[in-house]
Structure formats: structure tokens, C-alpha cells
Write a structure and sequence with these properties.
131 residues; alpha+beta
């Protein structure tokens, strides 16, 4: 919108509150996103809560994978059928690091490294501490 030849950035009815959807009106900053502090707080709290949930789901899956791999190492096993691991709760989509080496998927779950094939997890080993 132009006022006396100056672009104001505000077009009536175009800008709405990101929380409640109400029009922002023509007063205040032209780049504001919320109609009130209450709406701003509500939006940010909901966003933060969602991200916290995502982090918790990822951390839970990684922790479970690590526990399963740790149990295999304690039993002296360095490989296992993927189907058996999945049945134990192992989730192949959650890793802390990943690399292709020699055409194979080399995967890390924190300090435990393994090679992932379509049907098997092999060469499970704990990495030595660098501390």
C-alpha cells in the first residue's frame, strides 16, 4: 500500500496474527506477526513444546538402540539379524552418525559402530574413548 507515494508495507486485511488469525490492524510495526503478547507467548510455547517432544522421541529411540547394541556386545556377539533387532525395538532410522564405506552403510549409535545391511547388523564394536 502506498500513502503519499511512500510504501508502508501494510495492506488492510492481508496481515494476520500467526496464533489466532485476527487481522493485525494498521497500527504498530508493519512487520509484526502477533496481535498481542498473549498470542505471541501461546505460539512460541506450542512451538517449543512440539520441538521438545521431537527431541524426546529421537533421544528415546537412540537410547533404546544403544541399549540393544550394548546387550549384544555384553553377550559377545558382533552381528545379529536385523529382523531380530527390530523385534527387540531397534529402529534403523535413528543413528548418531552415518557414512558409506566400501559400498556399505557404516553407522554409529553414540560410541557403538556397526555395519548395516538390508538383513543384518554386523561388525558391532564399541569405539575406544578419546578422553
Amino acid at each position: 500500500m502506498e500513502t503519499n507515494g511512500i510504501k508502508t508495507g501494510y495492506c488492510p486485511g492481508e496481515h494476520r496474527c500467526m496464533e489466532c488469525g485476527e487481522p493485525l490492524g494498521e497500527y504498530g510495526r508493519s512487520d509484526r506477526k502477533f496481535c498481542s503478547p498473549h498470542c505471541k507467548d501461546g505460539y512460541n510455547n506450542r512451538k517449543r513444546h512440539y520441538l521438545r517432544g521431537v527431541r524426546m522421541r529421537v533421544e528415546t529411540a537412540l537410547s533404546r538402540n544403544h541399549s540393544i547394541l550394548e546387550r549384544l556386545l555384553e553377550e559377545g556377539r558382533t552381528s545379529a539379524q536385523l529382523a531380530d533387532l527390530v523385534q527387540m525395538g531397534f529402529k534403523t532410522d535413528y543413528v548418531s552418525s552415518f557414512r558409506k564405506a566400501g559400498g556399505r552403510d557404516v553407522v554409529w549409535c553414540y560410541d557403538i559402530k556397526y555395519v548395516l545391511t538390508p538383513t543384518k547388523v554386523m561388525r558391532i564394536e564399541r569405539l575406544s574413548s578419546v578422553l
